[in-house]
Protein 1
Amino acid sequence: MVVATSPAMTLARDADGNLANRADWTKEIAVQLAMEEGITELTDRHWLVITYMKEQFEAKGDAPSIRKLTKESGVETKELYALFPKGPAKKAAKIAGLPKPKGCI
């Protein structure tokens, strides 16, 4: 359960609900953001995707799309949807403290 006084609840957000300042991100904040998205536990597979997204953002200036995630992260599409239901790229970017990927609706 996310408590209303949790640090993630008080951080500045953009119009999509993603962190406005990437420097605010910590692993603890990621856990709280995941809980907001209905993900109660971040497993090693979640962290693999989150780390990949952060690395790609640093290298290219944008979070990867679902297609790129599937091709390059080592996590297949079906598993991505199991890890991050109803919008893996969008949810993973949010939990990683990144803006919504440009290709996401």
Protein 2
Amino acid sequence: MFETLKPQAPDKILSLMAQYKEDPRSTKIDLGVGVYKDATGLTPVMRAVKAAEHTLWQEQDSKSYVGLTGDPAFSDAMIKLVLGDAVPRNTIAAAATPGGTGAVRQAFEMIQMANPKARVFVSDPTWPNHVSILQYLGIEMVPYRYFDSETRSVSFDAMIDDLKTATKGDVILLHGCCHNPTGANLTMDQWAEVIKVLHDTGATPMIDIAYQGFGDGLDADAEGTRAVAAAVPECLIAASCSKNFGVYRERTGILMVVAADTGAYALNQGTLAYLNRQNFSFPPDHGARIVTMILTDDALRADWQAELEDVRLGMLSLRKQLAGELKRLSNSDRFDFLAEHRGMFSRLGTTPELVEKLRVDHGIYMVGDSRMNIAGLNAETIPVLARAIIDAGV
């Protein structure tokens, strides 16, 4: 029967990783894969994670299942981290998931259960898995303009014009912070305008927040998400622990469903449990337990936040260095946007042909849409990248 299967298009980022590994040049630079790296090219285990794992290894006495929606303590800790006191806790249903991707998938499944005719509005561009999962599930997707390739900033007026075409029963997918793939974020004034559109259209917001703490700080990065959750009757929030806790391979994520009142809590919580059961039964617990231990222990949390702040400031420093080097080489301010963007990614706003030229001529590997991972740089590679960008005519 399997001879009827059709070949699937290879993942572009994974293909790029394979090309990079096969490239013999010692000067090659990997800016493709979306994983944080330190100056040595390593994705380190955070100090607090190591300490929590050591304690867990000593004290854990069972590997039995926890529950269909994971440990309630993990939900409590993550809801507090993401939403603070913006929304009453007894209105928020939550379920642990295999990574942020699992949370996104479960959110889309819940949307489809609630309204099979729902349209999901996604930013153009957005994280490719958003598009891929929606297409796989057969959910209608409506792109809204987001990024201006000329200014390398948010095309906000166009975005609002597109979002105004949403109606009640539709879902508007927003990035909580550190927009992937562009690095261009909404200001709080712009978030307020988006909230007004949500009220006017009756559309339901879904927020994907995968990089909290990587942009302007833990609370600052959650400010837009909190404002939306507090202002609308209901919303979906998919959060990931992969980046800010560095537990990529532990697949640690959570889906939250904020309701208008406590009456909807039980229904939403039961639906999340049902969806988990149909998809993977019990979510993984190891990463979630480590995160819970860190967030509920004062010393571990303080050490984690200090290391996360070092990571954030390091990426900001790389941005400023790259923007400064490009200004020096080009004698123009057209690359200043790199210092203004936030998170791991920035989109150069150039053509696939020039991206390919960077790869072939200079060994610079980035995604074809010109998304580059700033965390893949260090003080030695910044001048190399800057010179390659100028030589390629970007």
